[in-house]
Design goal:
Blueprint: E1 5-7, H1 16-29, E2 33-36, E3 52-57, E4 62-66, H2 72-91, H3 95-98, H4 101-108, E5 109-113, H5 120-127, H6 133-147, H7 164-169, H8 177-184, E6 193-198, H9 204-218, E7 224-228, H10 231-247, E8 260-264, H11 276-284, H12 296-313, E9 321-326, H13 334-343, E10 344-353, H14 354-361, E11 371-373, H15 381-392, H16 405-410, E12 414-418, E13 421-425, E14 442-447, H17 450-465, E15 474-478, H18 484-500, E16 503-506, H19 507-510, E17 517-521, E18 531-537, H20 545-555, E19 558-567, H21 576-588, E20 591-594, H22 598-610, H23 617-628, H24 635-644, H25 652-666
Parallel strand pairs: 1-2, 4-5, 6-10, 6-11, 7-8, 7-9, 9-10, 14-19, 15-17, 15-18, 16-17, 18-19
Antiparallel strand pairs: 2-3, 3-4, 12-13, 13-20
Helix pairs in contact: 8-9, 12-13, 15-20, 15-21, 17-18, 23-25
């Protein structure tokens, strides 16, 4: 699980001892180190000098280390690298923050030969020591330029903010070792599928965007598809890609539907570029099946069987895409991955949530990622621990799920087993290092008349504690699916407008996050988003895996504090054991849980298997037809109308209302 050391240096007799000592130090002290020969930001930076490397570590001076004596070649190497970093600084508008190289070179750069380094501890504690806060921020920005972890210069100041909210917002983000490896290491040539797994908030989508950017620039003749199951997420990604390209100063224009597609997985018959499966069917001239006819899994299996035979019989097989990117892979079956591999020429990059995959697949042996991201940078570790505990029912007499030691470690936990008690902890993260360790990153409570009193009882408290808070810093998410949430969302919005004068964004209508507006949504429109503050409201904690997965996902959308709010009534499911578990996490930064007996584990598995499975779109509509008594002769026409309206992301309540209106018009 150690991922604190990234090295692109080939070991040789001159450097092997030092590199091994650096790796041991990084993993023992849990300090991220980077050993590189050139800036990673762009592949064009190459140097003739081969007898040294650059050592980077947050809050420590940058070291240029030579295996031989210092000479003119070494000095020229340093000069060239610093000149190029100055150029990169200009490109990303860092110069106004960190200054020209001449202003920071003497303070932040150290030149060393190998014989000057007695040991690694001395290297960091003496030779590279730095204690000036302003210079440390300057240094971290320089490191971000070296490794391509570019921060938004317009949001960063060289002086550290005093306000806690602004400190967290303005934290300089640096890739960790596994993130850096995914972006810059070349995968084995024969390996077509590259899998990246991590918890929600570990930066998977951001890494896919970095890899996408590099491949789009380097391979100018490539055809690339970026896909996911959820249409709303696909639309958000399509907006995000040009923003990311602009931010990363990509000069090539995006050729949509020519070189780059960003679509959901299925698509519509009327538009060949509306989905990955739809495009594949058109490209190869095979039948396209809609939701009316098949589940997505069956549609992919049918296409896969046809295309396998076509490929065997066709010596001049053409690939539909050069590269593919699949986000939120836990939403798919294996048939879709195999289909994508068959029609992709070079690489298929697959990213998913390790927790949801383990939870849904029920066995760790099916998950063998090439890159495992164990550190969640979005959410405070204490909040994440509780989100997992509540999601799996770990503080309840009948647990919903259980992970073994290896699975817990894959989810980023340190595991200490004493008897039948698992004591689980997570490593601190630099994003939250300015937060007092006793800061309550999670608060649980009840509110009477939530719609009318949310401003007085919650939002005004947030404003009082964090005076720089803005409307779009707050997300209000309703976890339930009952129809009451839409009326309550309107009441909440009305209260916020009236009492604060803030704009609101009803996201299940707008399908987007809007600036300077409080985000209000059901649970279907939040993927990929994060907020400093998340307020989750639910009437009752349910025991279904779908609901528990939702509560885990929504609570972990915050990067400062999450609120879990219930109405003031009996039967909310908020037990004393849950509250006791929360208290232990907040106080001791530890999740202490008792391992179930073997009999209980078997019951858990059996209950999971028997639990209601996620219905396909076809099955949902058929259930609604049955409930409403829709005549069979109307089925096809109603299906077509619903499909044209793209209602498949709606919950059953809105879908039923829509279908009823259609049927009433047809009757």
């Amino acid at each position: 699980m150690d991922n604190y050391f990234f090295s692109q240096i080939d070991k040789n007799p001159s450097n092997s001892v030092l590199l091994e000592d650096l790796e041991k130090y990084a993993n023992k002290e849990k300090v991220q180190l980077y050993a590189i020969t050139s800036p990673l930001t762009d592949q064009k930076y190459n140097y003739d000098y081969k007898d040294g490397f650059i050592l980077l570590s947050s809050k420590k001076k940058i070291a240029f280390i030579t295996y031989k004596d210092k000479n003119d070649a070494f000095e020229n190497y340093i000069d060239d690298v610093i000149e190029d970093i100055g150029s990169i600084s200009d490109k990303y508008q860092y110069r106004s923050i960190i200054g020209r190289p001449r202003t920071w070179r003497n303070d932040l750069i150290v030149e060393l030969s190998l014989h000057e380094i007695e040991n690694v501890s001395m290297l960091f504690e003496k030779l590279l020591y730095l204690n000036d806060t302003t210079k440390i921020r300057q240094l971290d920005l320089l490191i971000s330029l070296f490794i391509g972890s570019i921060n938004d210069a317009s949001q960063i100041t060289i002086d550290e903010p005093e306000d806690l909210l602004e400190k967290v917002k303005n934290k300089i983000q640096l890739f960790d070792g596994d993130q850096t490896r995914f972006i810059y290491e070349s995968s084995k040539q024969e390996q077509k599928r590259v899998t990246i797994q991590g918890l929600s908030g570990t930066g998977k989508t951001e890494l896919l965007l970095h890899k996408l950017k590099d491949l789009y620039i380097i391979d100018s003749n490539s055809k690339i598809c970026f896909t996911c199951h959820n249409k709303i997420l696909a639309d958000n990604l399509k907006k995000r890609i040009p923003q990311f390209f602009n931010f990363m100063k990509v000069e090539q224009q995006i050729e949509w539907d020519v070189r780059l597609w960003c679509v959901n997985a299925w698509g519509r018959f009327s538009n060949i570029n509306s989905g990955t499966y739809r495009y594949i069917c058109n490209f190869y001239g095979i039948p396209f099946y809609s939701y009316v006819e098949h589940s997505f899994k069956n549609a992919c299996e049918l296409a896969l069987n046809i295309l396998r035979n076509m490929k065997k019989e066709n010596e001049n097989w053409q690939y539909a895409f050069t590269y593919m990117f699949i986000d939120e892979s836990q939403d798919f079956d294996e048939s879709f991955f195999e289909l994508c591999q068959l029609i992709t020429e070079k690489k298929v990059y697959v990213a998913g949530d390790i927790f949801q995959s383990i939870f849904e697949e029920k066995k760790v042996t099916t998950i063998k990622p090439d890159y495992l991201l164990s550190r969640c940078y979005r959410t405070d570790p204490k909040t994440l621990m509780f989100a997992h505990a509540l999601g799996m029912g770990l503080f309840e007499k009948r647990k919903l799920w259980w992970l073994d030691k290896t699975e817990w470690e894959m989810c980023g936990y340190n595991v200490d087993i004493k008897g039948n008690t698992y004591n689980l902890t997570r490593e601190p993260l630099r994003r939250f290092e300015d937060i007092d360790e006793d800061f309550e990153s999670l608060q649980i409570g009840t509110i009477k008349d939530f719609g009318d009193r949310i401003v007085e009882l919650l939002i005004n408290k947030i404003i009082s504690e964090f005076p720089t808070v803005k409307p779009d810093d707050i997300g209000i998410i309703f976890l339930d699916q009952e129809s009451y949430i839409y009326k309550l969302a309107e009441d909440v919005g009305r209260s916020i407008r009236k009492k604060l004068g803030w704009n609101i964004n009803i996201a299940y209508e707008t399908k987007e996050k809007r600036p300077q507006s409080v985000f209000i949504s059901n649970r279907n429109n939040v993927k990929g988003l994060e907020f400093p503050f998340v307020i989750c409201y639910t009437h009752k904690i349910l025991s279904t895996s779908n609901y528990r997965n939702t509560i885990y996902t929504m609570l972990s959308r915050s990067f400062l504090r999450s609120y879990l709010v219930f109405p003031q009534k009996e039967g909310t499911g908020l037990t004393d054991d849950i509250l006791k578990g929360v208290k232990n996490i907040m106080k001791n930064k530890t999740m202490s849980i008792n391992e179930p007996t073997e009999k209980e584990k078997e019951e858990i598995k059996a209950r999971f298997v028997m639990e209601e499975k996620k219905l396909s779109y076809y099955e949902r509509i058929m259930n609604i037809f049955k409930k409403l008594g829709v005549r069979k002769e109307l089925h096809k026409r109603v299906f077509k109308t619903v499909e044209d309206a793209e209602m498949y992301e709606s919950d059953d309540i809105k879908l039923e209302k829509f279908i009823k209106n259609i049927v009433d018009c047809m009757s």
